[in-house]
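Quick one:
INPUT:
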């Protein structure tokens, strides 16, 4: 019954919220996505927005995906397809997703989970998925269901009732009821998958990475990174993220190094208030560590009443470095003291923000609580490393909550990537 109610709710007309590069939003009914534009039906009539200006299209009301009684197909490009009737043969892996049947070449599949998701097995399953192995890992349920175990070999096919497993030269049929999942061996010659331009999340829990997406007459069509097409109904979509082809959000970019070197210098006002020996360094690190997509109090990032869904809140004294690999042309962000503490101390609290591209200082400025948030575009073309240091601006760290709202790295657009 819950599944039926979920599906009925999904079929009801749903408004979407469209967010553009400048942070503005519009809410309406999604009519069309072409190769160049997105069209929304607003109360005032149709509104067309250039696709290159769109960051995200998302349902106004988030729908929690239902618990799946089926399995999952995990792809090497980070796509995740919730599917039933998962099969494998010499050509690849197939299954039935909520948006329709899928067939994926074998070399594109990282793993398949054949049993329903279960919290008690998640950590073990994740560990198996992350192993670097040349052989396939057959992950099975222990007989007492207390955990998972595995065998290394070759999975040649998966049929309706059993799996064929080649172990030490012998083919062993394994009942599917015993199989939790399969992690397929990695080819050591595999390179990094191409960068996606589109991320699609569905109300069923699918995550699909692709090159492009179009939509018309209630149907979306996604071109995947491997060049084939997936289709489904617009009412099945949760969100369409178009930022990945243009930007990498800094909060999602894996840092090279993250260093917190203490909340306050000895002898400062705050050190006296806290007691220089009252807070051990590990406890300071836990209290004042960098926060992603939230402020130091675990609340949404907010500057002058504007909320930022993505970004960082950094406490002095924090330094973080990220790899660039000469792939990005600039860092863009709105910087300022978080509203939660901006008006404390009459706005006199301040931090010093230093940004480096490799060893070159490209920004060195002091930001006070009374200052209006400022938009920054910092050139990074040709740089291999980005380093951000939030230092003491006034000799102590009282209310030093620096927000980098919507902080993102703009990808260099080559002829090939257009």
């Amino acid at each position: 019954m819950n599944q039926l109610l979920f599906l009925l709710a999904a079929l009801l007309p749903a408004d979407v919220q469209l967010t553009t590069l400048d942070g503005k939003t519009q809410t309406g009914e999604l009519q069309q996505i072409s190769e160049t534009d997105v069209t929304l039906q607003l109360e005032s009539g149709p509104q067309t927005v250039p696709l290159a200006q769109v960051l995200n299209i998302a349902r106004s009301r988030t729908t929690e995906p239902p618990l799946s009684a089926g399995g999952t197909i995990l792809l090497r490009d980070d796509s995740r397809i919730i599917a039933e009737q998962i099969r494998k043969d010499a050509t690849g892996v197939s299954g039935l997703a909520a948006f329709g049947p899928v067939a994926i070449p074998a070399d594109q599949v990282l793993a398949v989970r054949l049993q329903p998701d279960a919290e008690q097995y998640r950590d073990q399953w994740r560990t198996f998925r992350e192993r670097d192995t040349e052989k396939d890992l057959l992950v099975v349920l222990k007989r007492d269901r207390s955990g998972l175990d595995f065998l290394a070999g070759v999975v040649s096919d998966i049929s309706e009732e059993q799996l064929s497993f080649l172990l030490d030269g012998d083919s062993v049929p394994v009942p599917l009821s015993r199989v939790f999942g399969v992690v397929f061996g990695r080819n050591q010659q595999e390179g990094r998958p191409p960068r996606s331009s589109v991320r699609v999340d569905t109300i069923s829990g699918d995550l699909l990475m692709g090159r492009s997406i179009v939509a018309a007459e209630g149907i979306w069509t996604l071109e995947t990174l491997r060049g084939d097409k997936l289709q489904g109904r617009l009412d099945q979509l949760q969100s369409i993220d178009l930022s990945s082809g243009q930007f990498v959000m800094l909060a999602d970019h894996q840092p090279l190094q993250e260093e917190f070197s203490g909340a306050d210098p000895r002898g400062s006002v705050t050190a006296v208030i806290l007691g220089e020996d009252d807070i051990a360094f590990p406890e300071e690190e836990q209290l004042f560590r960098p926060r992603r997509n939230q402020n130091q109090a675990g609340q949404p990032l907010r500057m002058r009443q504007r909320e930022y869904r993505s970004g960082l809140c950094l406490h002095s004294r924090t330094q973080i470095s990220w790899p660039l690999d000469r792939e990005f042309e600039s860092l863009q962000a709105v910087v300022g003291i978080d509203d939660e503490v901006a008006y404390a101390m009459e706005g006199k609290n301040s931090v010093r923000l230093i940004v480096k591209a490799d060893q070159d200082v490209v920004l060195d400025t002091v930001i006070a609580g009374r200052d209006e948030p400022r938009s920054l575009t910092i050139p990074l073309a040709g740089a291999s490393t980005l380093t951000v240091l939030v230092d003491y601006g006034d000799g102590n760290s009282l209310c030093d909550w620096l927000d980098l709202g919507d902080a993102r790295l703009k990808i260099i657009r080559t002829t090939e990537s257009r």
